[in-house]
Amino acid sequence: MAVQVAVCGPAECTGRDRNRAHETGRLLAGRGAVVTCGGHGGVMAAAAAGAVRATGLWG
Hints:
- The protein is mostly helical.
- The chain has one domain (4-55).
- The protein has helices spanning 15-30, 42-55; strands at 4-6, 34-36.
- The chain has a two-stranded parallel ribbon with strand order 1-2.
- The protein is globular, with a radius of gyration of 10 Å.
C-alpha cells in the first residue's frame, strides 16, 4: 500500500508558499505517495496540482 500524505493549508497564501506546496506535492507523488487535500485554493490546490503534474494524469 502506498504512503498517504494529507496536505492542509490556507486558501490565502503567498506566492512563495504556493510554489513550495506545488513542489512538495510533485515530489511526494513522484515518489509514489498518495497526496490528499481539499484542493479548493491556495496551499492545498497547489499541492494537488503538483501531485497531478508528477503523475502525468492531467494535461
